[in-house]
């Protein structure tokens, strides 16, 4: 099922920016209409689960010029670094707007001041509505991933696999963004805490399940026999 992003309905009043020079360079000036369009793009990005399709170039430029993000050469690189890699980077990006509002790269609140402060405040208010449910989804996915690693480790020990390579830490993927989009939809439509994903989608049976057989045990992985244990 595809859930298309629905703009949040709260109204904000923006003012046009006057000419300002910072560190010898003129800043990116925004009209009231441009701020409204940027807020709409931000809302759509969040409600899409932070999909690349909804991460617009104007929004990327605003983050670079006004929100203390640097060292990213282009929009694709920025999106890949924060929204398509580790959950820790994703969390730091999300927390800057919806959590403690500390800059993900500088660790302070200075980014909230200066030009376009009204737009920054609006972006934070919108993100704060979704911060708890989206953070919960990330936490639940990490828990399930850690359970999988633990199960794989137990299987490797039981099967005497000495050179087993454990799965890497959980990485944000397109499936992650689909779950985030669904969580945002539920949170805004129903305004109630989400039940943990580990409660909603429990494994029907252990990933690695020893089954007694005559003369020993057989380890079954997803209903497939993988070898006997002494």
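^ structure tokens above, recovered residues below v
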């Amino acid at each position: 099922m595809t859930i298309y992003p629905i703009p949040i309905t709260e109204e904000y009043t923006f003012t046009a920016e006057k000419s300002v020079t910072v560190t010898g360079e003129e800043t990116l000036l925004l009209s009231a209409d441009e701020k409204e369009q940027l807020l709409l793009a931000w809302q759509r990005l969040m409600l899409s689960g932070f999909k690349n399709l909804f991460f617009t170039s104007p929004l990327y430029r605003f983050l670079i010029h006004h929100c203390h993000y640097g060292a990213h050469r282009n929009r694709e690189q920025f999106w890949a670094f924060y929204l398509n890699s580790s959950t820790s980077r994703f969390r730091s990006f999300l927390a800057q707007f919806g959590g403690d509002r500390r800059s993900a790269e500088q660790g302070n609140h200075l980014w909230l001041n200066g030009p376009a402060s009204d737009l920054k405040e609006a972006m934070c208010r919108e993100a704060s509505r979704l911060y708890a449910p989206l953070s919960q989804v990330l936490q639940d996915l990490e828990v399930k991933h850690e359970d999988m690693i633990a199960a794989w480790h137990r299987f490797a020990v039981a099967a005497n696999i000495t050179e087993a390579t454990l799965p890497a830490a959980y990485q944000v993927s397109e499936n992650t963004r689909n779950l985030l989009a669904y969580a945002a939809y539920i949170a805004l439509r129903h305004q109630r805490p989400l039940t943990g994903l580990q409660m909603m989608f429990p494994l029907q049976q252990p990933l690695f399940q020893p089954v007694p057989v005559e003369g020993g045990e057989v380890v079954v992985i997803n209903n497939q026999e993988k070898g006997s244990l002494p």
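The chain has one domain: 1-204.
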